[in-house]
Amino acid sequence: MESVNSPTNRQRAERGQASTLWGIGANVALVLGKGTAGVLGNSYALIADAIESATDIVSSGIVWLGLRTAAREPDDNHPYGHGKAEPLAAMLVAGALLAAAAYIAYESILRIQTPHQLPARFTLAVLAVIIAIKETLYRRVLRVGQEVESAAVKADAWHHRADAITSATAFVGIGIALLGGPGYESADDWAALVACAFIVYNAYHIFRPAFGEIMDEAPAGTWVADVRALAEAVPGVVATEKCFVRKMGLEFFVDLHVLVDGGISVREGHAIAGAVKAAIKRARPAVYNVLVHVEPNLA
């Protein structure tokens, strides 16, 4: 269970936004480096990699806007807050990945059918550096996404991983082309085509949990069990009955039925419900609201 010293939802949103901005800055530099090296080195796999990084910039911008919107306070039109903007951003990132994969696949097939020169050897060194940078970004952003429990930030991390995979397949393709020599020029393009399959897989990996969140799917892990345990530890609670937990952006909403002694007053039952709500929010700061329904224990 989380401690009372856990970061607030606003702090979690700010951490997610900061990691996203770091990724945008890195991708701007990588697009320029990849694109230049791909053109000068005659490597479409590297150019495709630059295209994938360009979609990273767009998707990271979407994630950043999604997190900013999700962190806004509830208003008259959105009494439950703006949290759905966060998984919506993740779903848009998945769409951007699919669009990039389709474009890269189309261009790769065209180049496979068109004779061209072997890629330059220096492109291998460029790709090695890119793979290291992208894998580092993936690990860093994923750690933040897991800590703040953000589908959009995790999606941004997986976009970095997709870029690293694209670079790795490009490295293999260029290596095969250079080792094989004349007649193996298209290995570079086949590598870009293979990378599309990995990109599509990552798009699904991003889309699935975000879609589940939009559909109010129960959160993974021990959330429900922890909430029940916290409620049942409150004096006056005999047991818990129904317990529903749903995630909305960076926040969680709990609907809970607790059983209390049927002979106590309404005032006492209300006090127990308040204590249950306080206990859950204190232990789980990510919980925005707890709706407690008090039922008499008739046993």
Automatic annotation (TrEMBL):
> Is Ubl conjugation found in the keyword set?
no
Identify its membrane topology class: Multi-pass membrane protein
Cross-referenced InterPro entries: Cation_efflux (IPR002524), Cation_efflux_CTD (IPR027470), Cation_efflux_CTD_sf (IPR036837), Cation_efflux_TM (IPR058533), Cation_efflux_TMD_sf (IPR027469), CDF_Transporter (IPR050291)
All copies of the Cation efflux protein transmembrane domain together span: 24-215
Q: Which residues form the Cation efflux protein cytoplasmic domain?
A: 224-296
Matching NCBIfam families? CDF (TIGR01297)
Family that this chain belongs to: Belongs to the cation diffusion facilitator (CDF) transporter (TC 2.A.4) family.
Protein name as annotated? Cation transporter
Species of origin? Hymenobacter guriensis
